[in-house]
Write a structure and sequence with these properties.
CATH architecture: Roll
Order of helices and strands: EHEEHEEHH
Strand content: 35-45%
Shape: globular
Distance between the termini: 20 Å
Structural class: alpha+beta
CATH class: Alpha Beta
Strand order of the largest sheet: 2-3-1-5-4
Number of helices: 4
Helix content: 25-40%
CATH superfamily: Gamma-glutamyl cyclotransferase-like
Amino acid sequence: MSAPRARRLPVPSDPLFVYGTLTFPEVLVELLGRTPRLDAARVSGRRAARLPGRVYPGLVTAAGAVTRGAVLRGLTAAEWRVLDDFEDDEYDLRPIFVHAGESAHAAWTYVWTAEVLAADWSATAFAGDHLPHYAGRCARWRTGPAV
C-alpha cells in the first residue's frame, strides 16, 4: 500500500490476474465496495512467493511452477486506480498469459520486483491467520484518516 505511481493503466475492459489477497472477496469489497467477477485461472512459469515481513505474496518467475488465482473482469477505470494505488511500489503491472479452463488469453498482473523468501505463499494460511485483520486494514486504507 503506497503512493500512486505515474503510469498509464490498462483500459477498464482489460482483465487483471490476481493470485494473493485480491482473490478474497472480503478484501475486494473493502477496497472497491463490491466484488468484481472472479474467474478461476492459472499462470505457468511463475510462483506466488512469501515476502519478508509481509502477509501478502509476490509473483515471481519460477521454472516449472504454476500459480493458481483468478481473473478479475469488469473493473472500472476508478477501480483500476484504486488497485494500482493500493499495490506497493515493488509491484510492476505487466501483461501475462493466463489459462482459464481450456482457454488461454492475455491479462495484466502485478509482478513482484524485490526480494522474496524461498517458501510459497499459502492462501489457506493467510485466510486462517490474517484475513479479518487484513480486510480491516484495507478498509482503513480506503477510507483514509478521519478528519
